[in-house]
Amino acid sequence: MSDRLAEFRAFRERMNERILEAGNLEIKRFFALDTRTYEAGALPVRTKELLGLVASMVLRCDDCITYHVVRCKEEGVTDEELLETFSVALVVGGSIVIPHLRRAVDMLDRVNAGDLPAEAGQG
Amino acid sequence: MSDRLAEFRAFRERMNERILEAGNLEIKRFFALDTRTYEAGALPVRTKELLGLVASMVLRCDDCITYHVVRCKEEGVTDEELLETFSVALVVGGSIVIPHLRRAVDMLDRVNAGDLPAEAGQG
Amino acid sequence: MSDRLAEFRAFRERMNERILEAGNLEIKRFFALDTRTYEAGALPVRTKELLGLVASMVLRCDDCITYHVVRCKEEGVTDEELLETFSVALVVGGSIVIPHLRRAVDMLDRVNAGDLPAEAGQG
Amino acid sequence: MSDRLAEFRAFRERMNERILEAGNLEIKRFFALDTRTYEAGALPVRTKELLGLVASMVLRCDDCITYHVVRCKEEGVTDEELLETFSVALVVGGSIVIPHLRRAVDMLDRVNAGDLPAEAGQG
Amino acid sequence: MSDRLAEFRAFRERMNERILEAGNLEIKRFFALDTRTYEAGALPVRTKELLGLVASMVLRCDDCITYHVVRCKEEGVTDEELLETFSVALVVGGSIVIPHLRRAVDMLDRVNAGDLPAEAGQG
Amino acid sequence: MSDRLAEFRAFRERMNERILEAGNLEIKRFFALDTRTYEAGALPVRTKELLGLVASMVLRCDDCITYHVVRCKEEGVTDEELLETFSVALVVGGSIVIPHLRRAVDMLDRVNAGDLPAEAGQG
Question: Where are the alpha helices (DSSP H) in B22-97?
Fold first, then answer.
């Protein structure tokens, strides 16, 4: 796994744990609900992950994009499908999305080059 | 077709025509690209419409939501699938999405109650 | 109660009910969590309502602003305190907030002129 | 002047007056600063109005767009220049800008069809 | 004081000074107004800082969040009150806020572990 | 050229090339359209770059701001004109823009201190 990806994961996991231990019930419930929302229902998991990805991209959140790119790859989404999802985000969200697109493709290359991370964490 | 839906369509079609006639090449190309982006590719049209819908919802654009809800229904998306798409938008975008969710469900009810509009226009 | 305020409430209540009956569990849980978040805790209800108001204002959601202005008045927040909350929203969010400020003050005048609505609904 | 434009102006002027009389000093200063920012400096007024217009458009604020379209026409900006400004907003902000573009062009047509409003107000 | 916090402060102070010396009157007035807005009025300083914090969080600005977390601690806000403020931001702004929540809690831990910075700067 | 500026350029150019080679036609067309939009028309290039800059600033995209600051300097925009453009962004977008203003002025200082980069790339 690339250094940047590993660092991102370590920080996310450490802080998620720290936040869940902090004892605020609303935040804990939000995290549980967030996980639940991407589980299989009428729509399969991979479609839901694509939805999470495009939403993260138009809202321009690099960490969320990284998370959903990794999850999409875990669910077997192809690079071509990811690029089409990026194209929807780009057209809906405009050129302001381009810097995030650059980082998303860079992250995708890192994921493709290395091992897929094994666990699926929060947000 | 409900009055509100009919009014929305009429204004959209009239203004799209007006804008395309105004002679700005970049705007014309953007409109063409926008249409193209939702055509079948590695991802089927219905998945792309769901992507357009969730992006519109987290960016909180009622007209865009209405447009994609109509298109999703034309593509045979079920109400249950739409509700799951709404739930992703709600969790990603937060309670600020709720007023748009109310209007989206209201629009869905109007679409379900009436005839489906026949044409698929711009944006 | 002013017509605009009454209309807003009627639509909100009707659609909230419609949405909760639609059977999507994640949306139901989100609505429950949303209500819970404004209940008294380490911070009193009126501070939480002010937080909800300023967040709604910088995110520029008129329906959310209306809802929290009504709730703030129910909790005994003074007009002077509301204006200071508006001033924080204006300085943080910029002149783009001004049209929402105009509608917020108009809504505040309507609330002050009429009876306070009795119930506290969703979002 | 078209009805919609006249209504917009009347509400804006009435509420601006109401807000300035409400006695919150920070809000008053913000309004004064807002006016000042568009006065001639190193950049001429018409360039500053174009800047205000494109910023309003990517932030998707219809009232702000209407205000700046009117001001641009008062400053002698041509329709072709306005369309190019719209095209920058569209490419930067994406298809989510299209519904606002439709309303902006509609408003421009109303301004072109009628008398230009005489005064230049707040925000 | 942690390195990251110290670095943030040093850059902010150096650039604020640089900007105020640049001679643009509107920017100077905005900075003065920004400071003024958080001074005691009908609402106490600590409530205003909580308002600034929640607004910064839903608008997802890490530097602004850091600034207001530090100011809140200076004003004696407890960690429990901060967590409830975070929960309002999370529910209003959605899961897109989570990466900022992680960094906010990390920053809070750094502030709690070290000396509180003595000065209160701009924005 | 400063290290940070050089690094930014290298990553942008490498990833733009990578993205254009990835074979998604919609993304390629968007990139072409993006370039075209800033070419001379009814409005001169320097005005269009100022429009791109203010739009990037209110949407708070550091990479886009850096790109347009560099392009503005290449087009002979003065520091005083840039500061006025920043002031419009600040007043329209609010204090949430301040951290980006700090980084923009820092980047402007780096551009002024070094050689101007020779090429004009994408987004």
Answer: 25-37, 45-58, 62-74, 79-93
The answer to ipTM > 0.85 is yes
Three-state SS across D29-52? HHHHHHHHHCCCCCCCHHHHHHHH
Instruction: Report the neighbours of C using a cutoff of 3 or more CB pairs below 8 angstroms.
Output: A, B, D, E, F
For residue C96, give both structure tokens. Answer: 């783009």
pLDDT (tens digit per residue) in B28-47: 999 999 999 999 999 999 99
CA distance B111 to B39: 22
Dihedrals φ, ψ of E118, to 5°? -85, -30
Which chains share 3+ C-beta pairs under 8 angstroms with F? A, B, C, D, E
Helices (H) and strands (E) in chain D, counts: 6, 0
Task: Find out whether C61 and B99 touch, Cβ atoms under 8 Å.
Answer: yes
E10 contact partners, CB below 8 Å, separation of at least 6: none
Token pair recorded at residue F1: 């050229």
Interior/surface letters C50-79, b for 16+ CB within 10 angstroms, e for the rest:
bbbbbbbbbbbbbbbbbbbbbbbbbbebeb
| C-alpha pair distances (Å), F108 with each of C71, D52, E88, F1 | 46, 22, 37, 12
pTM: 0.95
**Alpha carbon of C79: minimum distance to chain D alpha carbons (Å):** 9
User: Inter-chain contact F33–B30, Cβ cutoff 8 Å?
Assistant: yes
| Share of chain E residues as helix, strand and coil, in percent rounded to the nearest 5 | 75, 0, 25
Nearest to C84 by CA among C123, C53, C42: C53
Question: What phi and psi values does residue E121 have, to the nearest 5 degrees?
Answer: -95, -160
